[in-house]
Amino acid sequence: MKLTFSPASPFARKVRIAAIELGLIDKIEMIPSTVAPGTVNEEYSKISPLKKLPVLITNDGDVILDSYVIVEYLNETAGGALIPGYGRKRWQVKTDHSLIQGMLDSMLLCRYEKAVRPQGLQWQAWSDDHWNRAWTGMARFESRDDVLGGPFDIVQIGLVCVLGYADYRFADCGWRKAYPKLDKFHQKMLERPSVNISVPPPA
Ligand SMILES: N[C@@H](CCC(=O)N[C@@H](CS)C(=O)NCC(=O)O)C(=O)O
């Protein structure tokens, strides 16, 4: 299998953590890839018209996207327990993960607004609104003892990617002070080699 990724991507980090935990990491060739919003990037668009990473290419040559679907594929391949297979718990995990996915999307939009959009075209209220979505999402998980102390699954993995991305791109946002339970959770998660090894490198 092949995975397009960048060390900075929280979505790719989610897949990398899952692959390590599922014992599949050695079966995946990592393909460092560059995505550049606002550019044509024809080469990457041959892999996926959405021009987003990560993308998994299976041994049969099938292309799998996005990060949730890739984790689901790896989980099924390994017979893992990162996503419950049925019942109420399954829909709760999928919904919690959707919230995390939306938080990451919003954080990325904030990042692109500053780093990619030309000055003068930037829209502060829009950026503030997206940051607020991520921030209030963190507040939601701060009160979710069942997630913070629950089984290791795609929600815990996704949450650690949110917090790692906050450290990486929004270092001054003060999430640790605002959300002490998330801080404790994050510290505990960093004890896992899969989480520790995938921390984004200094920018
Ligand atoms: N829903 C996608 C989101 C992936 C995503 O937004 N990846 C970012 C990198 S962290 C990207 O490729 N951005 C390029 C772009 O939006 O043009 C997933 O879960 O895989």
What does this structure look like?
It is a single chain. It contains ten helices and four strands. It has 203 residues and is an alpha+beta fold. The chain has two domains: 2-78, 3-Layer(aba) Sandwich (Glutaredoxin); 87-193, Glutathione S-transferase Yfyf (Class Pi), Chain A, domain 2 (Up-down Bundle), CATH 1.20.1050. It has a four-stranded mixed beta sheet. A hairpin with a 5-residue loop joins strand 3 and strand 4 (63-64). Helix 4 (87-115) runs antiparallel to helix 5 (124-142). The protein binds glutathione (GSH). Residues 9-11, 35, 37, 51-54, 66-68, 108 line the site of glutathione.
By CATH reckoning, the class of the largest domain would read: Mainly Alpha
Q: Please list the strands of the largest sheet in the order they lie side by side.
A: 2-1-3-4
Rg (C-alpha, Å): 17 Å
The profile of the biggest β sheet is:
4 strands, mixed
List the secondary-structure elements in sequence, H or E.
EHEHEEHHHHHHHH
Instruction: Assign a percent range to the helix content.
Output: 55-70%
N/C terminus separation: 28 Å
**How would you sum up the global shape?**
globular
Stretches where pLDDT is under 50 for at least 5 consecutive residues are: none
In terms of DSSP E residues, the strand content is 5-15%
Instruction: Return the structural class.
Output: alpha+beta
CATH architecture of the largest domain: Up-down Bundle
Keywords:
203 residues; Glutaredoxin; 4-stranded mixed β-sheet; 10 helices; binds glutathione
Describe the structure concisely for a colleague:
The protein is α+β, with helices and mostly antiparallel strands and 203 residues long. The chain has helices at residues 10-21, 42-47, 67-78, 87-115, 124-142, 145-148, 154-169, 175-178, 180-189, 193-197, and strands spanning 2-5, 29-32, 55-57, 63-64.
